[in-house]
Amino acid sequence: MASPNSMTPQRLRRLLLHPSFLGVAGIGFLLVFWTLVAGLGVLDPLFLPSPTAVLAAGREELANGDLWRDISASLLRVLGGFTLSALVAFPLGIAMGTNATLCRLLEPLLALLRYMPAPAFIPLLIIYFGVGELPKVLLIFIGTLFFNTLMIMDAVKFVPRELLETTRTLGGRQRDLLLRVITPYIAPQVLDAFRINMAAAWNLVIVAELVAAESGLGKHITLAQRFLRTDQIFLGLIVIGLIGLLIDLSFRMLMRRSCAWAT
Amino acid sequence: MNLILDSVCKRFGEGRGAQLVLDQISLTMHTGQFLALLGSSGSGKSTLMRLVAGLEKPTSGSLSLDGRPIRGPGSDRGMVFQKYSLYPWLTAAQNVAFGLELKGLERSQIKERTAFYLEVVGLVDSAKRLPRELSGGMQQRVAIARALAAEPRLLLLDEPFGALDLQIRESMQEFLHNLWRSTGLSVLLITHDIDEALLLAQQVHILAPRPGRIVQTLSLDLDRCDLHELRISTPFQTLRHQVADMLRQLDRDLP
């Protein structure tokens, strides 16, 4: 039998069952593994920089302000392109979800466009708009527009008919159906669609910056590659991952705050 | 309130695939009446209700309320569906207030009426709860309160208790009966539940399926002081069996 202050099987079980325990443990395991392998010295530090080297690189980049500049450049592009995409997708998705003719007209087209990989548009965008901000914002726009639209359309189609008809028997008009029933009903699904497609947007901006950019986290990585600074490449990758995770978490929090009824 | 249906037919689809759902339905209903449409599935009873609500248009024949033809949905005919009847993001009180807000009533008036109708259905204590925090029976009471708050001339109930457990259904039937007796509402109830129709309605139209048509009308003059007593009384049980046999026969006669 275990002594009072040791880990009893029950307490161990409870810890293991905690919702975030395994997730944290998985990340922790990778960090320990990385430290060990880098510490053993069997791999050239050029290929596998140690966690402390990456940390030092991060401190250096933070101090000279380069990292902040790159982060904000990437974030602003995503924000611009995604906002534009959401502004178009929301009304378009609702229109397609409520109007069968429009849906039949546009759905095959969107389904086709959706299967054209957005990064494949980069050469065209560069020919049309050069290497400034516009082509990057547009890339994120076209890379998320079709997914956003189709997901919103689907959400609209699942609004129960009874709810719409009840509203009409209460004297509701088309405007009321759109603004006071459909919009609040689909809000949780729309937020979820945005959360999922935001991941794609975040990937796209990095790809665009890898190809051609003056700043941004993708640019940070290509620059580091040029000078064989693998510690900086690792830093870039980790920062990209962490920001993506933060975006995801903030969408989840927004959802819990604003659509508590659906969670 | 005067509802008149004159030779109403409803056909869905066109050409060879067309299906006659309602065939020559005629009926009248007056203020304060409790009328039930009883039929098995395929008898077009929901379609008939939707025509009265103005959510569908008849293929031929006419429907009128107080002399005016029914052209579309309106708040003079309150409707309660079997499921998905509440706005899930609104509290019970906000659900009741919804129709009043659509009408553009004043804040104070909305508040007053909402409180009143929540009281009528006995849910004052649950005013601030979301639909998912309410039981099925409570949800349907909120839906009824919301329909009543618009002060309709006619209340349309489409299998309102069909999704509820048997015991809750019985207490809801009692609730509806008391509501009707105390308010003088005009109620049109659609159901496939024989007990429900016979217990509650003064007049029961029995519908035959495919195409839906009225085959018999029962005018009931029962002593409804105690619904529970009535439910288990011998005359009621006999009547119930007769109607059940009739519905069974109608289903068997189908081609």
The oligomeric state of the chains shown is heterodimer
CATH class of the domain at 2-76 and 152-252 in chain B: Alpha Beta
Chain pair with largest interface: A-B, 21 and 29 residues
Count every helix of chain B, treating DSSP H or I runs of 4 or more residues as helices.
8
CATH superfamily of the domain at 2-76 and 152-252 in chain B: P-loop containing nucleotide triphosphate hydrolases
CATH superfamily of chain A: MetI-like
Identify the strand order in the major beta sheet of chain B: 6-7-8-3-9-10
3D shape of chain B: globular
In helices, the fraction of residues of chain A equals over 70%
What key phrases describe this protein's structure?
heterodimer; A: 263 residues; mainly alpha; MetI-like fold; 11 helices; 80% helix; flat; B: 255 residues; alpha/beta; Rossmann fold; 6-stranded mixed beta sheet; 4-stranded antiparallel beta sheet; 8 helices; 10 strands; globular
What does this structure look like?
With 263 residues, chain A is mainly α. Chain A has one domain (53-262): MetI-like (MetI-like fold). Helix content of chain A is 80%, strand content 0%. Chain A is built from 11 helices and no strands. In chain A, helix 9 (174-211) runs antiparallel to helix 11 (230-258). Chain A is flat. The mean pLDDT of chain A is 92. Chain B is of the alpha/beta class. Chain B has a domain at 2-76 and 152-252: Rossmann fold (3-Layer(aba) Sandwich). Chain B has 8 helices and 10 strands. Chain B has helices at 45-53, 92-103, 107-120, 136-149, 166-183, 194-200, 227-232, 234-252, and strands spanning 2-12, 19-30, 34-38, 60-65, 68-69, 77-80, 154-158, 187-191, 203-208, 213-219. In chain B, the strands form 2 sheets. Chain B has a 6-stranded mixed beta sheet with strand order 6-7-8-3-9-10, with helices on both faces. In chain B, strand 1 (2-12) and strand 2 (19-30) form a beta hairpin. Chain B is globular, with a radius of gyration of 18 Å. Chain B starts with a strand and ends with a helix. The A-B interface holds A 160-163, 165-172, 176, 180-181, 184-185, 187, 259, 261-262 and B 53-55, 72-75, 77-79, 81-85, 87-89, 98-99, 102-103, 130, 132, 143, 146-147, 150, 156.
